[in-house]
Each structure stands twice: as C-alpha cells, then as structure tokens.
Amino acid sequence: MMQSTHFINGEWVAGQGHDIRSIDPAKNAVIWEAKSASADQVDAAIKAARQASVQWAAKTVDERLDIIKAFGAQLEQNKDALAKVMARETGKPEWETATEVGAMIGKIGISERAYHERTGTVENPMPVGKAIIRHKPHGVVAVFGPYNFPGHLPNGHIVPALLAGNTVIFKPSDLTPMVAQETVKLWEQAGLPAGVLNLVQGEVETGKALASHAGIDGLFFTGSSRTGKLLHEQHAGNPGKILALEMGGNNPLLVREVEDTDAAVHDIVQSAFITSGQRCTCARRVFIPATEQGDAIVKRLIEVTGKIKVDDYDAQDQPFMGAMISAQAASQMVAAQQQLEDSGAKVLLRLTQPDEAKGFATPGLIDVTEIADTMPDEEHFGPMVKIIRYSDFDKAIEQANNTSFGLSAGLLSDSQQDWDYFFARIRAGIVNWNRPITGASSAAPFGGIGESGNHRASAYYAADYCAYPVASVELEKVTLPGKLSPGLSM
Ligand SMILES: NC(=O)c1ccc[n+]([C@@H]2O[C@H](COP(=O)([O-])OP(=O)(O)OC[C@H]3O[C@@H](n4cnc5c(N)ncnc54)[C@H](O)[C@@H]3O)[C@@H](O)[C@H]2O)c1
Ligand SMILES: O=CCC[C@H](NC(=O)CCC(=O)O)C(=O)O
C-alpha cells in the first residue's frame, strides 16, 4: 500500500515522485519508505497555503496562539514517543532527543514573548495625529530543515511564522522524514486549519521545486552553507522575497590561562563532541597554548575523549554520543581525517568507524598546528577536533578569525581582561566565555556572519523575519492643520 506521507491542504496524501526511504543509522535498518512529492504536489501545497493565508492572517494573535498552545500540549502528551522516533531516525541518544522535544515545547512561550517584544504594535504621538508601527505576515513561506535537529530547528521557524500569521510549506531533511511526519500529525491534532501548514517530503528535486516556486513570499532555511548559497543565488533579483539563512561554521574555541584543567577539558568536550559533533555550533578548531599547562590540557583531553561512551541510542546505560546520521557521514569523517593527516597533521586520538555499515564514529583529536595557515576552511560536521598550539594570543585570534564562516566562538580563560580583549576582536554571531560554545539559548538571537548566515538571526529574533513592519501616520478625521505651510492659502 502507498504510504500517505505528505500533508497538503489538511489531507495526508501519497507521493507521486520517486522512492525515498529513511534508515536507522545505528541498526542499519530501513524504518520508513515512501514516494517523494512531485513538482505538481509542491505546487498544490503552495496553492493550499495561499488559500488558507487570508483567514489565518485575519485571526487575532490570541486565536492563533490558542492553536499553537494546543500543539504544545500535544508535544507534551507525546514527548516520549516523539523523542524515540527522533533517536531511531538520527542515531542521537534518547536523553538528547528528550531535550530536543523539550526545546520544541519551550519555543512556544519564547516565540510569544518575542512576537510582542520585537514585532508588537507601538504608538507615538505626533503634533497632529499619531504614528503607529504594526507588523504584517509575509504570506506563504517555505521552511527547510536539517537532519541534526529534525524537530527543534524547523520548529524554530514554523512556530514564529504561524504566530505572525504566515502559512507554511515545510520541507524537512530527506534523512529525517519520519520525525517531520510525526510532528505534523501533532499540529493536525491541535486543530490547525487546513492549508495553514503543509508538509512535502523529498530530496533535492522536491527542495528545488519549492525553493524556485514563484508562489512563495519567503524561505527560511537551516542547513549547510553549500545549499544556503545555492538558495541565495536562486533568489538573486528577488529583493521582495525574505530569505533567512542559518548555516554552518568552522568554529574556534581558544583556551588561555585557566586554573581548573578538568573544567576546561569538559567545556572543550561538550563543545566538540555533543551530538557526535553534528551541531552547527560545535567547536571545530581548539587553540591551546604551547606551554606546560597547555600540554597538560592536551594530555587530559586525549584521556577524557578516549573514554567517551559511544553506543546505541536506546542503550540502557546511555552513551554521550550515538551514531552519526548515516554510515556515509561517518566514513566521510574518516576520509577527512586521512586528508588532514596526508597534509601534515598529527593524529592525537584516531577517529574510527567501527562498522562500515553503521553511522558510529569514535571521537578524534588531530593536531593541525603545522598546517593551520594552509588547511582548507571547511566545516567537518562530525566528531573530530583540530588542535592548534599557539604562542601568541593575537596570532591565535587572527587565525581563529581566518575563516569565511562566523557562527560561534569561545574563550576559556580566568581573566576578565582576556575576555574583553577577545570579545572586541573575534568575529562571530555567538561568542561565549567559559561556557561550551554549543547549547545556545532560544531566548537570544541565533545566527552567524559570513557564510554562516545572512544577518537574519533566528531563535528569539525569528520574529523579525516572520513579519514586515508597516508604519502609519493616522488621524481619525480629515482635518485642516492649525497653521498652513508658507505660500499656501485655503
Ligand atoms: N546555523 C544553524 O542554525 C544550523 C543549524 C543546524 C544545522 N546547520 C548546518 O546544516 C548542515 C547539516 O544539515 P543538512 O546536511 O541537513 O543540510 P543540507 O543543506 O544538506 O539540507 C538542508 C535542507 O535543504 C534541502 N536541500 C538540499 N539541497 C537543496 C537544493 N539544491 N535546493 C533546495 N533544497 C535543498 C535538504 O533536503 C534539507 O531540507 C551543517 O552544515 C550544519 O552546520 C546549521
Ligand atoms: O545545530 C545547530 C543548532 C545548535 C544549537 N542551537 C540552538 O538550539 C539555537 C537556539 C534555538 O534555535 O532556539 C546549539 O547551540 O547547540
């Protein structure tokens, strides 16, 4: 029987495109199979969203919020089941997917606050009448999600977009269709009117059909810089379409003088290896002083990293790291490590793929000091950290900034002076002090500069790209001014 996996105009329908499937990367088992949405089905989803758009935008914010809160209640009721689906489809441990569902629930209250604070209505008195700032939804927007947070990150676009009065076509990562399907079912159960949120599943073809469609007013994308750049090029010449791009990073973490070596090692590990290194904010380059204390940090980092538990998402004794998204992703990390080694880097702890048919990769550390100025500026999206030993803080900051990305960066140092110096010079959208550089707060803006984004930060600032401001000067009755302009007589 054909699976109905696309949600168009309030109905679940079977795809008319080609065969797609989802694989549990920890068990190497097919867990979902269907047909992708064809270009005609993408078109139908956009038409449904357009049709639903007037009535949805005409509702009061509180009416929209009631439905969004009902979705939050559905998430709460189904949190264990959804977390299990996420773990199966991504390989992430169940403790971590439980926190992902928690973040989805938390997003609702945060989006409500952000809506009022960032896009609320403001009145200013004028000598005659008043000036009012209001916000309107863009209309029909497309949301593209990545695989690493298949619930939380698309949710971070969808909730504020719907709250602002937009209707949405959601195209999840083709690696995580099941999480998307289960999430959209919860929206359906929450009573969202037909056409307000549509789901089209598929690979690049489906993505292209949606992104290039003339019927969308905006596109909110979270994913790789490669795809984000393609979308940016595709939208060149369309200044009226809002494009919000959240992309990757080649994030630096600098260590200076710290009293507590273990605390520094903990923050490095948490920054580098959480989610098997598959977070956009993960530390990719760690700068450690070429001093005795630096040697001690490296030694301890090797010990602690070597003991990280990597295992099945549903293991009784939960691991810190589960499988990566696919066996292919793990083997790409092995190949990336080999390339660096061939270029002169020194492996301190080897990243391995214990089973070529599965997505597991053990965490790796590689010293790239000798090739730091010549190695490619690449985001290696997995559990491998490049260590750079430095003697000069200014040079280290310069190297840290020597990237076309600019998502997250951090400093581990017990000195306030170091922090002030670092903060003034480092270039990134997220800059932390003595905290891991992963685990960003949804109550703050989230985004990067350079190839990491296009200055339309998400999380708390997602409200900004979900609505456009309208300025009005108003007076209740047409009235002659008390004083006419010079040279004018009535
Ligand atoms: N800055 C952030 O907020 C953030 C968050 C999570 C992940 N990321 C980044 O995302 C990447 C990992 O996620 P990914 O591999 O799923 O990203 P990806 O770019 O491969 O895919 C993202 C989405 O775009 C779609 N897509 C791919 N090619 C397309 C095309 N040519 N036209 C239209 N759509 C297309 C995909 O199907 C998916 O829905 C990493 O680079 C990571 O740093 C960034
Ligand atoms: O992989 C990219 C996201 C990483 C994650 N960031 C957030 O959760 C941002 C907050 C939000 O979107 O609400 C992290 O920093 O760990």
TrEMBL record:
Catalyses which reaction(s): N-succinyl-L-glutamate 5-semialdehyde + NAD(+) + H2O = N-succinyl-L-glutamate + NADH + 2 H(+)
Name of the protein this chain belongs to: N-succinylglutamate 5-semialdehyde dehydrogenase
Residues the record marks as active site: 246, 280
Domain (Aldehyde dehydrogenase): residue spans on this chain: 12-464
Annotated organism of origin: Salinimonas marina
Biological function: Catalyzes the NAD-dependent reduction of succinylglutamate semialdehyde into succinylglutamate.
EC category name: oxidoreductase
Entry annotated with the keyword S-adenosyl-L-methionine: no
